[in-house]
Specification:
- This protein is mostly helical and 81 residues long.
- It has a domain at 2-42.
- The protein is 42% helix and 0% strand.
- It has 3 helices and no strands.
- The longest helix has 14 residues, at 29-42.
- The radius of gyration is 26 Å and the shape is elongated.
- The chain starts with a helix and ends in a 39-residue tail after the last helix.
Length: 81
């Protein structure tokens, strides 16, 4: 993706319109605008640091530990008739 972003920035710098760029690289116009915005804000042609879904944190159970995937509550209801 970074290579494509670099090419998009080069085209923007050359004066090409976003519509012309999107047709040339077969990407949505919004992609061209987003790349331009990131480049203007950061000077980088790659996504902003910290974008995307964060990694999930999972803890491995050690010996003697019980693996619980949630809280189970047992409720005993007595019916009176």
């Amino acid at each position: 993706m970074s290579e494509l972003c670099q090419k998009i920035v080069e085209c923007i710098s050359a004066g090409d319109t976003p519509t012309k760029i999107q047709k040339r690289f077969l990407v949505p116009c919004q992609t061209v605008y987003n790349v331009k915005k990131v480049y203007e804000e950061t000077g980088l042609t790659k996504p902003k640091p910290g974008t995307g879904r964060p990694r999930s944190v999972s803890r491995k159970c050690g010996e003697g530990e019980e693996h619980n995937q949630g809280v189970a509550i047992n409720i005993h209801l007595e019916t009176t008739t």
